[in-house]
């Protein structure tokens, strides 16, 4: 093994998702590492989706690639601002195991919080996408204190995050287009407030570790410019029994065999 290969092995991992459908190159220790949250978010995109999708705050691209792997007619833009994570997104797209998906994938280096002309100049044009998804840094600083600046950027919520990120989603998604995010249940008030006059037809899926536990995540889906009311959909229970075995439904979603709506 060359010195360069050794250094890469120590600083990054190449992780297989969807039972071999794609590979994610991501940092070994620093910054954002993706897992079940990203797969659940991807599961909020309906089966058979066709069109342009933006993965906002994509990191190395886990959720976006999961959508591309499950939906063969989807074109996916990975939108990321961190130079550190952009490098991993580029490595992910160049990985040989992603060769079949690569023609339908692209990267936009842009800050999701930009607005107006600045946002459009960065490559996020008005009404340019049929769907947007986001797994934003939704933890409070007291919950995820870390000396790693990249990890803090990926995990810790900034002031006004829901308003700025959802404002961008509403600008770039066409009317009647779709939107989905994953967050902690405590964030629901801020999310719904940011949806006002932007998104309707809201569906909330509570995610429980096990039956009888409190929800640890919510997946929220909505439609741009819809006037339909809010629904609380059937919950997703991740694990069965005392161990860490996924329930049949969670396993299917985690491996790209089903959407949250199947």
TrEMBL record:
Gene3D superfamilies xrefs: Vaccinia Virus protein VP39
Pfam families per UniProt: MTS
Transmembrane segments: none
SUPFAM superfamilies xref list: S-adenosyl-L-methionine-dependent methyltransferases (SSF53335)
Example of a GO MF term: N-methyltransferase activity
Keywords for the protein's UniProt record, in alphabetical order: Methyltransferase, S-adenosyl-L-methionine, Transferase
Gene Ontology BP terms: methylation
Lineage, highest ranks first: Bacteria, Pseudomonadati, Pseudomonadota, Alphaproteobacteria, Hyphomicrobiales
Official protein name in the record: Methyltransferase
PROSITE patterns xrefs: N6_MTASE (PS00092)
All copies of domain Methyltransferase small, residue ranges: 39-144
Organism from which the protein derives: Candidatus Tokpelaia hoelldobleri
Origin: domain of life: Bacteria
């Amino acid at each position: 093994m060359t010195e360069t290969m050794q250094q890469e092995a120590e600083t990054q991992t190449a992780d297989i998702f969807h039972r071999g459908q794609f590979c994610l190159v991501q940092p070994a220790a620093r910054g954002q590492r993706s897992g079940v949250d990203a797969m659940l978010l991807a599961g909020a995109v309906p089966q058979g989706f066709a069109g342009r999708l933006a993965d906002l705050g994509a990191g190395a691209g886990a959720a976006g690639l999961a959508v591309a792997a499950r939906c063969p007619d989807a074109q996916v833009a990975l939108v990321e601002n961190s130079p550190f994570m952009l490098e991993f997104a580029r490595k992910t797209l160049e990985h040989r195991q992603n060769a079949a998906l690569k023609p339908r994938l692209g990267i936009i280096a842009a800050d999701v919080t930009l607005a107006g002309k600045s946002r459009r100049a960065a490559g996020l044009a008005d009404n340019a996408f049929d769907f947007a998804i986001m797994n934003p840094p939704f933890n409070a600083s007291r919950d995820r204190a870390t000396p790693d600046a990249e990890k803090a950027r990926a995990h810790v919520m900034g002031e006004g995050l829901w308003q700025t990120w959802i404002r961008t989603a509403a600008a770039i998604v066409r009317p009647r287009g779709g939107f989905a995010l994953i967050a902690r249940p405590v964030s629901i008030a801020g999310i719904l407030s940011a949806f006002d006059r932007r998104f309707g037809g809201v569906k909330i899926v509570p995610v429980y570790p096990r039956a009888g536990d409190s929800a640890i995540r919510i997946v929220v889906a909505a439609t741009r410019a819809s006037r339909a009311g809010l629904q609380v959909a059937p919950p997703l229970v991740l694990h069965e029994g005392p161990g860490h075995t996924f329930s049949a439904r969670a396993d299917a979603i985690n491996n790209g065999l089903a959407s949250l709506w199947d």
